[in-house]
Structures are given as structure tokens and as C-alpha cells.
């Protein structure tokens, strides 16, 4: 979809499980495919937003639905997050059968415990320079802090005042771009991410679709960085936006509790339905 018509809203037409008929019907159809990939963002999608990212946890209902989906035949579940993969492993705490993608696709943990990542010497030098520049910004402004990631850093301003947040973003952007060419910058909710290697959640979905040989993809996300994922979906896939904001997703729900509701319904349909042969 191009996003101009506006996605459906769960509260607009309560039907089965409180969801609109169109979404229920789409879930029914999706549940019938032979091989299904369920790709999910974590923060703001499975887990409510919190001030300290390491304290984030999926809602109990979302976790239970994900575990149910992981047990179903012909179904793969992947988390695709902007978090560093080690952080994603800790907060998600899922079985090894879950596929994990961290740092917007830079890090992959598929069906082995190994994390796939390789930065060359030039990229490593850029990471060191970026650390110096952004560390100075974070150290100079109250309630701004830096999170290290494998190919860069995230500048967090959730706890800062609006003024300090704006100043931190402006200074960080100016200083970082002055020092490093071809820098990838992503703006999220109260966070500015800098990476020396460019990947997107859309590329991650395309890679996972091929890796799992899936016939269809369900993808749910909440942030602007998830729009790359929605853009990578095909006509027979299903995109679900969690929360407010413009989106290319076909459907929308208010937040993580409703995402859990959708996932539980998808698991129920897929467990009881007849898959395509």
C-alpha cells in the first residue's frame, strides 16, 4: 500500500477477538500457506517502550503467542531489531529456534549460535572515530547517553528535555558527518543511530524470506525504521503497524497488547487450519 488511504484501526470495527473483519480474513488466508515467516520488531511491538532498553520485555501474551508459533510446523519466527544482537538475545529470551536479526540487519543469528558479522579495517577505524565524536556529545549534555552497537552507536535522548534532545541530535549529526563519509543515520523514537555499514529491515526480511523459503511473510513493527520492512512485503504478505504515525502497513493496532492479540489469533488459525499442499 502507498499509505495514503490510511491503515485500518482495530478499535474501528470490533469483531472476532476485537479485530476488524478485513484483518481477521487476512489472518485466515495467511495461516493457510505451507511455509510462513513471522517477522517481528521487538521494542514497541512485542514489548512496551521503557526508559532503560535493557529492562524491556515482551508482554506475557506476546511471549506466549510467539512460543506457540515457534512450535507450529512450517512456521519460522524471526525478531528483527535495531538492537545489538546480544541485547536482543537477553531481552527476548527465546528458544534457539527463533531467528534473530540485530542492528537493522547487520547481525544475524540463524540456525547456529554463531553471529554473522564482519567489519573490515576501514570500517573499524570509522567506528573508533564515531565513538570519540558521539562520546563527547553524550558527555556534554544532561541525560543523553550512548549505546555501542557492532557497526556504530545509538545516541539516546529519551530522558533528556526536549531542548537538550534537539541540541544533542543537531550537534551529533553535524560533528559525525564532518568526520565520516558515507555514514548511515537513522532517526527513531528518542534515538539517533549512526552506523558505518548500511542495512535495512527490508533487506533483512528479503534475506529471511529466501533463507526460510517462505511462501508468505507476516511483519509487525512500530517505528520509522520498520517502514523499510513494510516496503519489502509482497502483495500476499501481511504488514501490521503498532501505534501511531504514517505507515505503509496494511493494518494497524494501538500497541503491543493488540499485537499479541493478533499473533495469538494467527497461531490459533495456523494450528487448526489446513495448510496449502
Describe the fold and architecture:
The structure is a single chain. The protein has 277 residues and is of the alpha/beta class. It folds into two domains: 9-117 and 200-272, Rossmann fold, CATH 3.40.50; 121-195, Alpha-Beta Complex (Aspartate Aminotransferase, domain 1). Helices cover 36% and strands 19% of the residues. The chain contains eight helices and twelve strands. An eight-stranded mixed beta sheet has the order 1-12-11-10-2-3-4-5, with helices on both faces. The longest helix is centred in the middle third of the chain and has 20 residues, at 121-140.
Salient structural properties:
277 residues; alpha/beta; Rossmann fold; Aspartate Aminotransferase, domain 1; eight-stranded mixed beta sheet; disordered N terminus
Layout: helices, strands, pairs:
Layout: E1 8-9, H1 21-30, E2 36-40, H2 60-70, E3 75-80, H3 85-92, E4 99-102, E5 107-109, H4 121-140, E6 145-149, E7 152-156, H5 162-179, E8 184-188, E9 191-195, H6 201-212, E10 216-221, H7 227-231, E11 238-242, E12 251-253, H8 256-272
Parallel strand pairs: 1-12, 2-3, 2-10, 3-4, 10-11, 11-12
Antiparallel strand pairs: 4-5, 6-7, 7-9, 8-9
Helix pairs in contact: 1-8, 2-8, 4-5
CATH superfamily of the largest domain: HAD superfamily/HAD-like
Helicity level = 25-40%
β-strand percent reads 15-25%
Number of domains: 2
Which structural class fits the helix and strand makeup?
alpha/beta
CATH class value of the largest domain: Alpha Beta
Question: What would you say about this model in short?
Answer:
By secondary structure, the chain is an alpha/beta fold.
